[in-house]
């Protein structure tokens, strides 16, 4: 997986997307991302990016792209592009659920701000940031928010930093190379005891080990199966996050996790066993499926 991200990084440097607003023009994005997808062996590279951009712009079909080829994407549209292209680079189907995760987290940031007052500057912690799409989308929606994000993949962290520069958000975003272990230790990263986060977001691996080999070929070809494998019942990292978050978060902080809908009951049991949470709620995705859990620290 690392070599794929490195190939992508070289293309970003070459095209200087992090220097010019013109890099957000539809015609330029199609050209640039087609090359990136081809370098990373993403099937149907050109049609993939055209479908992604069409969906972001609300076009009925890709043939309409010719009429907007010089259009410049807004920051919000570009954030959505990052979410979708990140999934395609991982050989995974583009899922609107990730945008749902951002929406839920954004709603909770608004709630915290309403509770704490307008001077409140919330601090977000993301585990497994990939290209940084989730943290950067949240930063763009909340000008007082700060984000700390970690990922075990050095190239992914480099990509996140580049994206933060492109979007003018680097002053409020920090990305570190670090791995969350099953025992709750975070290797390569430490937070001073004086820092407590207000919200934690993560889209962790939640596919049960026994189901990995039966995934659709487009997903199974994803090189890093560790980023998909959630352990025997799919909740290995989810449980680690739930049991250890109280030491990273302040009282009243929120946790938002994307999950497999079959895991809601066991996650509720884990949270109850911890005794550190005032409540847990299950949220549905855009398809009406139980896809997210929200926990609040006592």
UniProtKB/TrEMBL annotation:
One GO MF term: nucleic acid binding
Listed Gene3D superfamilies: Vaccinia Virus protein VP39
Keywords of this entry: Methyltransferase, Transferase
UniProt key word Transferase: yes
Domain Methyltransferase small residue range list: 115-206
One cellular component term from this protein's GO annotations in UniProt: mitochondrion
InterPro entries linked: DNA_methylase_N6_adenine_CS, N5-glutamine_MTase, SAM-dependent_MTases_sf, Small_mtfrase_dom
Origin: domain of life: Eukaryota
One record GO biological process: methylation
PANTHER family: HEMK METHYLTRANSFERASE, MTRF1L RELEASE FACTOR GLUTAMINE METHYLTRANSFERASE
Annotated protein name in UniProt: HemK methyltransferase family member 1
């Amino acid at each position: 997986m690392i070599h794929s991200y490195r190939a992508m990084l070289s293309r970003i440097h070459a095209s200087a997307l992090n220097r010019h607003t013109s890099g957000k023009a539809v015609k330029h994005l199609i050209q640039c991302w087609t090359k990136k997808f081809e370098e990373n062996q993403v099937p149907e590279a050109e049609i993939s990016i055209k479908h992604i951009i069409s969906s972001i712009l609300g076009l009925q079909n890709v043939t309409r792209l010719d009429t907007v080829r010089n259009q410049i994407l807004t920051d919000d549209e570009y954030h959505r592009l990052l979410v979708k292209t990140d999934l395609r680079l991982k050989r995974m189907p583009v899922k609107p659920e990730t945008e749902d995760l951002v929406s839920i987290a954004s709603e909770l940031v608004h709630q915290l701000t309403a509770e704490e007052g307008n001077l409140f500057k919330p601090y977000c912690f993301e585990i497994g940031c990939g290209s940084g799409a989730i943290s950067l989308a949240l930063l763009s929606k909340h000008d007082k928010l700060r984000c700390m994000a970690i990922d075990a993949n050095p190239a992914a962290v480099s990509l996140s930093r580049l994206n933060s520069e492109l979007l003018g958000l680097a002053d409020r975003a920090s990305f570190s190379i670090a791995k969350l272990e099953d025992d709750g230790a975070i290797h390569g990263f430490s937070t001073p005891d004086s820092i407590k986060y207000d919200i934690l977001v993560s889209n962790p691996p939640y596919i049960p080990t026994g189901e990995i080999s039966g995934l659709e070929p487009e997903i199974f070809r994803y090189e890093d199966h560790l980023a998909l494998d959630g352990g025997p019942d799919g909740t290995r990292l989810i449980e680690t996050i739930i049991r250890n978050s109280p030491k990273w978060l302040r009282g009243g902080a929120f946790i938002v996790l994307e999950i497999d809908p079959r895991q809601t009951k066991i996650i509720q049991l884990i949270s109850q066993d911890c005794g550190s949470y005032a409540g847990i709620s299950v949220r549905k995705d855009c398809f009406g499926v139980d896809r997210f859990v929200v926990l609040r620290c006592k």
